[in-house]
Amino acid sequence: MNTPLKDAVARKGSLLQTMRAVAWSFFGVRRSADYDKDVHQLNPVHVVIAGVVGAVLFVLLLLMLVNWVIDSGVAAGTA
After folding, report:
1. Domain ranges for the chain
2. Which of 21, 57, 65, 77 is the most exposed, fewest CB within 10 Å of its CB?
3. Nearest Cα to 54, choosing from 29, 30, 18, 13?
4. What is the pTM of this model?
5. Is 28 helix (H, G, I), strand (E, B) or coil?
């Protein structure tokens, strides 16, 4: 009764494919054909991990940008 899952064998998406799919999802733009291909090829666990890593990097980038603006004096409002 121990049979391997069909999805586990079919899902052999690369790291680059996973990162590209997650990056496009951050923008909210994805073609229907590419989405269908991703659904059948990418491992959902890898997509979740890539999404969390992408979100953390995005937040860190925003924090660095805010710190740069504050340190540069632009936010002081000198007119």
Report:
1. 6-76
2. 77
3. 18
4. 0.69
5. coil
